């Protein structure tokens, strides 16, 4: 079969060689894209410049690398990985390839609060309240994302958590948030609308270390936790009756995994806005590449990082000096690739 | 010959399961196809019911190529019940059985007295009249299987293909379903082709057996002709005694264990 | 019980279903009356009747004939179309998350509209709508073609849904890029996106009517086939149903119905998502009843939401898309919570 046993002393795991190879290849690609991201921009640098810029605090490129490009690229990679991992968890639990953090109310909740914030503060945004852009918006987004998830979770809970009911409730709640967001966009000045649109498309513009740290911390805590839950995810793919028979404690396992997915998506969205398609497409791309029964977690995360980092490279440079929100590029890149994979797997 | 497979080559994409198989089904017979898992018996049944298009050879219904007859016309002559069919939740027995009338309905003739008569008769014949308004998902396995057969009956075909109609049923329910099939065959003169796993029930409820292995027909004929100790060794790799069923007089297979000796004359 | 008892019981079910049908028709009629009479300017029923039968050019006559009637007719058309399209879509994909937008119609329409604004300088409502319609049709044909499986020639539900999501995301990204670059396009887009049936004249009604009627005819033809398909492809085939044709007719119906209503009224695909869930407890699984019920529930829901939007925030109006979500979603959530949701 497609799994190999891996035993170290008394410990043993089952490993899919295909997933391992793809994950490693993805990491190499990610490193390459990061390097390119360091080199390309208003100030072109060769690899030597990048190295000196990174380690020599007095060099010309130090500020560009350490304060602009590196934190931005890291934010992109981490946010992409967090969203993709969140998507992979939700798709496994909901057993539905259309599920994404949107369904948990995280991204839509964040969007609606941020749009409300931008519209309410009006044209002062950017000017007086620079605070709103660096601290206020991420805080608003985090608050909105967690609130949104709490609403969905609370409404879907009824003597336990049914994956199917969760998805249906999530859709209802997401519809409210989305339509309120649409309405808010018609209320404000058209310039505010544009600013809000950039945020809700997902953007990495001006992201610094203050965005890297929380996302990295969240991943450091939640990735191991999620990987521990892998075995329950495998079992969760079967119907509820089978699951109980397999000895998975249904509700705690499911509730914890969903909580992890919520936190991952909320932190990522707070940093870079809802780059929603990453969460939906990366697990499906990983699933088709690895040919597994459910989205492979680590591989999805790596693909999410690659997709976002690569997209940001294009978003920064393709129409320079004009910059596109990264979320737009991820969709323009990721959607055709997903389409290609669907097309290829038809036979 | 009502239904005939002539040199059919069957498979899914690249994977060929059956290659160059011939089989004829006589009018008014009850034929059961037996064979080990993966021998191609369900694939063959699907091809006979035009659910699977042969990659080579042809399937003939009443002497005509089945793929040349409009599918709706075929549906008035031949009914197929696939293995473990699915139904939307909440579908009632009466609704399910009524859907068997599909091939007889057009947009201007949605519910004729023929339809009503056929549904009533099918429900009655399968003993489901009292359960007509119950949702399918609330029934027991045996009742549910009877409901599906009832749907196939309402279709009003005199040829019925059933793919493992007794899977997931306990022995009593298996017998109940097969008694119903026998009734349809004997009383109403229908031609029946089934795939079954239980050899003893197959012997009892079929008047012809077809034994398959590796996509080929190894033996066909009456249960007495087919169910021999040699054949069980060759087809199922099973050592067994074949004795007479004390109730029906048909062959009764008593397994000894997996085959320990090469196929050939008994020691 | 014997055979004789079964037939009357089956007939009893049909009787009950007809009763529900008439109740729903009555509900739509009430919604129509509300939609014609209630608004920022309330018109007594008698005056409304006067305006419809023997107009003499009074202020009320003008309000009714030029504004309220086209708005109401458009609301009924869009509600019926989206309700039916949603039920068809969920039936064909066997996915309770499927809405008509899944075929890419909403994003196809949006992309074609904003493109026509920046590339061709289109500036009239009728103009946008033509482009929106064309975009919706092209996008859904592309999704359907993508969803087609190799030899059998009918798209599997999961691939269809995924292809639709991918194409929609792609088009949405392009649309976002355009509106971020062009302020005029952004202004049109944001109001269209919110979803509204207000300020569209009789010409818009005539523009979308043929498409919606054609879609309804196809939907009616599709209903029995969809019933057969709901028993699985094997059983459907053994019942004599031609599966590729059934799928193609279904998709064509969804495209016409939702494409026309989305182009004219903006993103209201949520109607198509929730209405079948509200309707299924009434109709059961028979699409010959589910489709008409869904159409009527959709029309009543859309009109009531529109009327609420007119009165809830005077002197302004709230877009029907927002009201629909605010009214429909809690109802939908309550429904999902109260009973075990019907699996498809």
TrEMBL record, chain C:
Coiled-coil parts of chain: none
Record keywords: Cell membrane, Membrane, Transmembrane, Transmembrane helix, Transport
GO terms of molecular function: transmembrane transporter activity
Pfam families found in the cross-reference section: FecCD
Membrane topology classification: Multi-pass membrane protein
Transmembrane segments: 101-122, 128-148, 160-181, 248-278, 290-312, 318-336
InterPro entries the UniProt entry points to: ABC_BtuC-like, ABC_transptr_permease_BtuC
Subcellular location: Cell membrane
GO cellular component: plasma membrane
UniProt keyword NAD, yes or no: no
Listed Gene3D superfamilies: ABC transporter involved in vitamin B12 uptake, BtuC
A GO BP entry: siderophore-iron import into cell
UniProt record similarity statement: Belongs to the binding-protein-dependent transport system permease family. FecCD subfamily.
PANTHER family: FE(3+) DICITRATE TRANSPORT SYSTEM PERMEASE PROTEIN FECC-RELATED (PTHR30472:SF1), FERRIC ENTEROBACTIN TRANSPORT SYSTEM PERMEASE PROTEIN (PTHR30472)
Protein name: Iron ABC transporter permease
Originating organism: Nonomuraea longispora
């Amino acid at each position: 079969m497609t799994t190999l046993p891996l035993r170290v002393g008394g410990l043993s795991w089952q490993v899919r060689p295909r997933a391992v190879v793809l994950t490693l290849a993805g990491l190499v690609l990610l490193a390459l894209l990061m390097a390119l991201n360091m080199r390309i921009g208003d100030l072109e640098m060769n690899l030597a410049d990048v190295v000196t810029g990174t380690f020599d605090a007095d060099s010309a490129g130090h500020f560009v690398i350490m304060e602009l490009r590196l934190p931005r690229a890291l934010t992109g990679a981490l946010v992409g990985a967090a969203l993709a991992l969140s998507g992979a968890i939700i798709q496994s639990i909901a057993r539905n390839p259309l599920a994404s953090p949107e369904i948990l109310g995280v991204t839509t909740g964040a969007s609606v609060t941020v749009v409300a914030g931008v519209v309410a503060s009006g044209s002062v945004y950017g000017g007086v309240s620079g605070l709103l852009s660096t601290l206020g918006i991420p805080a608003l987004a985090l608050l909105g994302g967690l609130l949104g998830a709490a609403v969905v979770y609370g409404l879907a809970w009824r003597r336990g958590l049914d994956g199917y009911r969760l998805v249906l409730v999530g859709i209802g709640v997401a519809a409210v948030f989305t339509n309120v967001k649409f309405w808010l966009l018609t209320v404000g000045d058209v310039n505010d609308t544009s600013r809000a649109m950039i945020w809700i498309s997902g953007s990495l513009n001006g992201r610094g270390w203050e965005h890297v740290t929380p996302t990295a911390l969240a991943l450091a805590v939640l990735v191991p936790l999620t990987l521990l839950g892998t075995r329950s995810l495998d079992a969760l793919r079967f119907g509820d009756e089978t699951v109980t028979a397999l000895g998975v404690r249904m509700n705690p396992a499911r509730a914890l995994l969903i909580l992890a997915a919520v936190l991952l998506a909320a932190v990522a969205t707070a940093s870079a806005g809802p780059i929603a398609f990453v969460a939906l497409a990366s697990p499906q791309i990983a699933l088709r590449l690895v040919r597994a029964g459910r989205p492979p977690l680590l591989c999805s995360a790596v693909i999410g990082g690659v997709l976002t980092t690569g997209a940001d490279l294009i978003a920064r440079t393709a129409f320079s000096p004009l910059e596109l929100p990264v979320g737009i590029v991820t969709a323009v890149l990721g959607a055709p690739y997903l389409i290609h994979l669907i097309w290829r797997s038809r036979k | 010959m009502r239904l005939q497979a002539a040199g059919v080559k069957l498979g899914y994409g690249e994977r060929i399961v059956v290659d160059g198989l011939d089989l004829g089904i006589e009018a008014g017979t009850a034929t059961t196809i037996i064979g080990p898992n993966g021998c191609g018996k369900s694939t063959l049944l699907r091809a006979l019911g035009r659910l699977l298009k042969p990659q080579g050879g042809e399937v003939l219904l009443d002497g005509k190529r089945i793929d040349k007859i409009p599918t709706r016309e075929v549906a008035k002559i031949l009914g197929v019940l696939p293995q473990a069919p699915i139904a939307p939740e909440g579908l009632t027995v009466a609704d399910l059985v009524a859907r068997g009338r599909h091939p007889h309905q057009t947009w201007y003739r949605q519910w004729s007295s023929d339809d009503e008569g056929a549904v009533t008769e099918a429900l009655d014949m399968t003993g489901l009249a009292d359960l007509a308004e119950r949702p399918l998902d609330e029934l027991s396995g045996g009742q549910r299987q009877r409901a599906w057969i009832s749907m196939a009956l309402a279709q009003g075909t005199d040829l019925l293909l059933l793919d493992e109609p007794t899977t997931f049923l306990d022995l009593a329910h298996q017998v109940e379903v097969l008694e119903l099939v026998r009734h349809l065959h004997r009383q109403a003169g229908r031609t029946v082709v089934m795939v079954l796993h239980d050899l003893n029930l197959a012997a009892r409820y079929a008047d012809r057996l077809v034994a398959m292995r590796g996509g080929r027909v190894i033996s066909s004929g009456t249960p007495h002709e087919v169910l021999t100790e040699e054949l069980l060794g060759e087809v199922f790799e099973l050592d067994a005694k074949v004795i007479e069923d004390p109730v029906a007089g048909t062959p009764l297979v008593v397994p000894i264990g997996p085959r320990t000796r090469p196929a050939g004359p008994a020691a | 019980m014997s055979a004789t008892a079964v037939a009357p019981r089956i007939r009893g079910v049909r009787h009950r279903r007809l009763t529900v049908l008439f109740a729903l028709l009555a509900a739509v009629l009430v919604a129509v009356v509300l939609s014609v009479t209630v608004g920022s300017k309330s018109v007594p029923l008698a005056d409304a009747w006067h305006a419809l039968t023997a107009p003499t050019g009074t202020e009320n006559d003008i309000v009714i004939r030029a504004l309220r009637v086209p708005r109401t007719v458009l609301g009924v058309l869009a509600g019926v179309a989206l309700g039916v399209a949603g039920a068809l879509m969920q039936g064909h994909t066997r996915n309770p998350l499927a809405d008509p937008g899944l075929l890419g119609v909403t994003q196809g329409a949006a992309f074609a509209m904003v493109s026509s604004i920046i590339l061709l300088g289109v500036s009239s409502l009728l103009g946008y709508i033509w482009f929106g319609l064309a975009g919706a049709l092209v996008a859904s044909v592309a999704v359907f073609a993508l969803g087609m499986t190799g030899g059998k020639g009918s798209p599997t539900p999961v691939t269809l849904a995924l292809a639709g999501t991918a194409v929609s995301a792609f088009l949405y990204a392009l649309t976002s890029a355009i509106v971020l670059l062009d302020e005029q396009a952004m202004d049109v887009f944001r109001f269209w996106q919110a979803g509204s049936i207000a300020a569209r004249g009789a010409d818009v009604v005539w523009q979308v009517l043929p498409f919606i009627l054609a879609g309804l005819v196809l939907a009616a033809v599709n209903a029995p086939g969809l019933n057969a398909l709901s028993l699985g492809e094997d059983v459907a085939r053994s019942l004599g149903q031609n599966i590729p044709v059934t799928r193609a007719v279904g998709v064509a119906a969804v495209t016409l119905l939702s494409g026309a209503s989305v182009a004219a009224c903006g993103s209201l695909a949520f109607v198509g998502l929730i209405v079948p869930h509200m309707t299924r407890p009434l109709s059961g699984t028979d699409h010959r009843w589910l489709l008409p019920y869904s159409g009527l529930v959709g029309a009543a829901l859309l009109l009531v939401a529109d009327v609420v939007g007119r009165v809830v925030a005077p002197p302004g109006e709230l877009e029907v898309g927002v009201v629909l979500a605010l009214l429909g979603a809690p109802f939908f959530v309550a429904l999902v919570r109260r009973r075990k949701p019907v699996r498809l």
